[in-house]
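Below is how a single chain appears once it has passed through the pipeline. First comes the sequence as given, then the structure the pipeline wrote out for it. We keep one example in the README because the format questions we get most often are answered faster by looking than by reading.
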Amino acid sequence: MKPSTLFAGRILNFQVETTQLGKVSYVNLDNAATTPPFKVKVCLFEADGGVDFGKPNSASVGSRLKFVSDSRRIIREKILSAINSVAGLNSKKRRWLVATTDVILALRSGAIANQYAGLVEKVEHGPFVILNYTDGCREWDEVARFCRGLIVDTRTWTVAAQPFSKFWNVGERPETQVEVLPREPFAIFEKVDGSLGVSYRDESGKLVLASRGSFTSDQALRGTQMLRALAHIEEIPESLTMVFEIVYRKNRLVVPYDFEGLVLLAIFNRESGEELPWSEVVEWAARLGCRLPKVYKFGSLEEALASKAELGYDAEGYVIRFASGLRVKIKGDKYLSLLRQAELRVRDKAVLEALAAGIFAQLLQKLPEELQPDVEKTAEGFRAQAQELETEACGVFVQAPKTDRKTYAIWVQQNARPAIKGALFQLLDGKEVNWYKLVQQ
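Resulting structure:
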């Protein structure tokens, strides 16, 4: 069962004439041209996949949002019923279909922008959308976990690229405590200290890479160059998503690698969610001529955990993959120590400069998840200072006499703090003020 069969246009945009509402569009779940069981006259899914609420007002917006929520729930129930009726689906495939359904419905209905505001961010590039959880995400339902650089093609409402789902450090959450992890076969891989690169085919059909949160970041563009330098990429089937780590010197965070290139971490079938066996990943790496992460041999999880203290500065840690597909990670002690030092170098001057230049999101994206909360907290402090300066300057500006520039200048010199004097003249001239640059003064 492909997601495209679940979201066909004839099902999602059915036109009927009703006695009570007149001509309406509604989500037809069973191909029966019957009066929709809704009281609000609104087209839920437009042809472009957007949601048309009309012109919302305080009296109607609540009922309309409830309408969308109720409609999404009804559609989900019907689709889940169809999934459950398919014989022979294993639990992993069923879970992927359910997660795909939830994510695409959330995207099409506007729930990503509403229900998941601040938890999942959407980045658009032509017909493609990257869905990526934010640093502030603390509510990990299946949609949020699934949105770790997932790419959706809005022309067909299907998965264009299937990367990893969110996974955590051992001991970071209740379900990743050592004593509750699965007692099943596992493999332990090197955790490469670079940037995630996810393959997808652009509008022209060419294979390109996106980073976890961007189609056009430096990492995505450099990764695409590296990808196109590999051998036999034209042999990669359209159904496969190649998941790489992008490594190059200018993108170094901690580990000083002696190479630049792509490291093939995993391969997924974007049409089924299935991960290819490691033996096939090895074969593809040999065919393409790219690197693989190291594979470690440990007798137990406890042995792997104990070894993290012995890892050198040239290793980030491990990724443990269980036979069921569950992944957890272990960071080396020395790596974490260097990471904290890197954080101290970043937190003040670089954060403020990034805010002033409007590139803080890009800066944050380059940092490991372990550093992001503290760096975001630093940024919040600078945002508060910038807001205080703006409030103060605007208050003074309102009071200042503006009969002529000379009178204004004399008044500002006598009544305003030095930190905001320059901003007051920018306001007089109608110029935009970069309040973050004032924080630096």
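The longest strand covers residues 261-269.

See the next section for the split statistics.
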